[in-house]
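Structure Section — protein described below
Tokens — whole-number codes for backbone shape
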Amino acid sequence: MGTKLSTLEWEIMEVLWALSPLSASEVHEKLPEHHNCHVKTVRSLLNRMLKKEAVSREKKHGVWVFTPAMEREASLVMVSQSFLQRFFGAQPVPLIAHLVENDMLSSDELDELRALINERGNNLAGDKTHE
């Protein structure tokens, strides 16, 4: 799934990751209400996503049903790496600095980030002692 997905396509992927396999009309029913799109739009998007290899489909009881072609976590890793490369030269520290310096993280999120960093640091330190 190297091809970029639109915001609505990502929301369709979220529905499919949670509930697949689904038909186009079932996907349409599960999308958040703020999308006032028609089921034909969802069907067109699913066909476009099929061409992008983001989803696969098979016929069940005479109806096309769609499933994600990649696991959610693998997709997020690819998108994160692409975003990091494109906007921050593949360097995570400037991204985190941007979030911190622009007050985009709550104190709870900062605490969670500190805990993740400390845990990862401890894991790396443990790995070095076993070498």
User: Anything to note?
Assistant: The domain at 72-129 is CATH 1.10.4040.10 (Penicillinase repressor fold). The beta strands are 55-60, 63-68. The first strand starts at residue 55 and ends at 60.
